[in-house]
Amino acid sequence: MSDYEDAIESLDDATLGLRHRSLWDPDRDSLGSEIVPGLREVSQLLDDDDSSVLTEGDDGVGCPLPSTPEDEHLLDCEINEVLKAGVLSDEIDLSALAHTAAEQAEEFVRKVWEASWKVCHFRNLPQWLQDNDYLHAGHRPPLPSFYACFKSIFRIHTETGNIWTHLLGCVAFIGVATYFLSQPTMTLEEKLVFGAFFVGAIVCLGMSSAFHTVHCHSECVGKLFSKLDYCGIAMLIMGSFVPWLYYGFYCHFQPKLIYLSVVTCLGVSSIVVSLWDRFSEPKYRALRAGVFMTFGLSGVVPAVHYAISEGWFNAISRASLGWLILMGGLYILGAMFYALRVPERFFPGKCDIWFQSHQIFHVLVIAAAFVHYHGITEMAMYRMTVGECTTPDKSALAF
């Protein structure tokens, strides 16, 4: 097939593309303003309203000038001839026109989708978004962009409560940390100790809010932020241990070092497990709760150690053992709500938007974090009141 015949086939497609892109409309007497430079001469010709005159050498069968716009076939004929000349002279790049049209169509579809998406039923979700089958309606469909995901924060759906509970908690801890760590009376060592707790809380709550915001973007993004969410939980548990062990064993370096080392190892292990791809699957919900509950309950060992060595009364009055127990109870209660999916298990379809187990879990996590903050500040105040340690004997350093 000759180059000319190839061009003829391409011209038919180009003409159709120009119509769709509104570069030429048979109802108008001129080409659009978007016409490429190679067609400017044709634009002037089509705008000319003089009577049709055959040029020298024509046999009277050719296409007339557009003074007869009622004959659409004749206009098509003239446009085809002009386009033939443009393609054969390489003045028109058909591939560039097609690429531009495709980009414009894709952008248009994306904007329409972002503006018009509606919540859907659980059964209409793709498998990678199906997590809790007790929540029937109000789910977000897969959203094509991060902008659409973050914009959905201000709409009502199954994740609205999960997003806002930890988002507000994250902002609250940022404010508390800024105020507390800016106190001029605090030493650098104390700022580092409390900073570990604040960083853990802020990262945990921030990653949780981010995950619930963007996990509907795509399966890949959902898995990534799910891992970051679980890593944030591990960081919160580690950060919570640091100030309690620091002040609880303030005058006992050896057990403090051992416990901090063990907590660090457990925290790193939890993070490694969290990075396992299958860890975020719905069927491993109980395993996830068990891993973090075990990590948190490991704090019972240093608490009992302190109570035996210092006495239960001192453990409660000096080491804020009561606040520590309350914090642990709130975390365990929240994990049980999360693992058992209560109350939606007993009221399917009734807790789709509010009062679902994950929202209750979020609220209990924030409450536990603030309870722990109160407890460790009480321990810090006691240490400031008592002052520095007296020189301990060897038995005090023994594990």
Automatic annotation (TrEMBL):
InterPro entries the record matches: AdipoR/HlyIII-related
Location(s) in or outside the cell: Membrane
Would you tell me the Gene Ontology cellular component terms?
plasma membrane
Protein origin, superkingdom: Eukaryota
Q: Which UniProt keywords apply?
A: Membrane, Metal-binding, Transmembrane, Transmembrane helix, Zinc
Signal peptide location: none
Specify which residues bind Zn(2+) according to the UniProt entry for this protein.
Answer: 212, 358, 362
The record's Gene Ontology biological-process terms are:
adiponectin-activated signaling pathway
GO MF terms listed in the record are: metal ion binding; signaling receptor activity
Report membrane topology.
Multi-pass membrane protein
Q: Which residues cross the membrane?
A: 163-181, 193-216, 228-246, 258-277, 289-308, 320-340, 360-376
Family, per the entry? Belongs to the ADIPOR family.
Q: What is this protein called?
A: Adiponectin receptor protein
Per the UniProt entry, what species is this protein from, by scientific name? Answer: Timema cristinae (Walking stick)
